[in-house]
Amino acid sequence: MNIPNTLTLSRIALTPVLIVLLFLDSAQTRWWAFALFAILAFTDYLDGYLARKLNQQSELGALLDPIADKVLVAAPIITLVGTGDIANWDIVGAILIISREFLVSGLREFLAQRNLPLPVTNLAKWKTTVQLVAVALFVLPEISITGQSLTTSGLWWLATILTLITGYDYVTSAIDRIRKKNRDS
Q1: How many domains does the chain have?
Q2: What is the rounded CA–CA span in Å between residue 145 and residue 156?
Q3: Would you call 103 exposed, middle or buried from its count of C-beta atoms within 10 A (0-12, 13-18, 19+)?
Q4: Which of 80, 126, 155, 161 could cross-link with 134 by S-S, CB 3.0 to 4.6 Å?
């Protein structure tokens, strides 16, 4: 067990605490939830950075990091739909985001069984950042800033569009890799 893997596991282990704070649904618990979410989102960057910097990359980390990322995105989204914070047409974005995450995870598993890696793209890293910021805005308690809802919804749909674009990129890349392997076989 190394520092990057500990950070990754903490992201998974502390997500239920985040969910409880969201369901308690007071202004105070929402601020605590926001702080915890921000810390957990930062570990998404930090664990990879430290793994490279400290030369502590591991197979366990490579397995757990995408799982932790999916948990950190999907669990609060589902909770925020349940609390009504993500509502109306924004629920469509939630369904598209979570569906894409399942699709890409399945693609990675399918390709891994065939020794075909599906590397993370820079756009997908930006997509994750925009997703995390959009979710963080939904986590915040209502504050009286003109346009908060409009900003939150706009960023949410930007995250959804990036999610769809990167999902399409991964599907086409997977198809290309499979075709190439079949031609070479």
Answers
A1: 1
A2: 17
A3: middle
A4: 155
